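INPUT
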Amino acid sequence: MLTFYHAPGSSSLAVHIALHEVGAVFEAKTISFAHRDLDPPELRGFNPEGKVPTLVIDGRPLTEVAAILYYLARTYPDAKLFPFGDIEAEAKVISWMSFVASTLHPARQRGPEHTQQVYRWAEQRLGVGPWAVGAYSIADIHLFRLFWRFRGSLGADPAIFPNLTAHHDRMMQRPAVQKTFEAEAALGYTLPA
Ligand SMILES: N[C@@H](CCC(=O)N[C@@H](CS)C(=O)NCC(=O)O)C(=O)O
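OUTPUT
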């Protein structure tokens, strides 16, 4: 039994996409950052930071996007979201997810110039792709969520970020991504343009 604590449009979107990619059966519990007083009372027991995503697996909590994506990729290997057996490719997926979590995600706190810089690093690192590491993987889902969310505020000019823009557009074609956006929009979340 999987219980997924999430807030539409937030970091948890990546896990939401992965849940749909693997076809997992899950119960979603939605929180609103505008109404933290309405949080499910059990959330802080599962995650003392009160952050999303939090995935509860048969009563046991798992936190952090990268770890949850890895759990889903391993639990549902038929979805082929991780390059199992190719050690270098496995490490590269972890490298990407570490970069996304530790460099891209907190970038905005250091201002717009720094944010532009780190996305230029991501642009260079991604190259023409089509995917972050060989075949499509959880690294792409993690990267996509950050670029999707922040490209509006970045004013991400496709001429400056052609690789990230093409990657974003490729991701938007995926049925699991479309299903996730439909589900989150139905909860009343207005998607950034
Ligand atoms: N390092 C965490 C970051 C998760 C995170 O920052 N979640 C934000 C939403 S994007 C959150 O829950 N914020 C609410 C809060 O800090 O109270 C991860 O990768 O899962």
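end of record. The chain has two domains: 2-78+176-186, 82-174.
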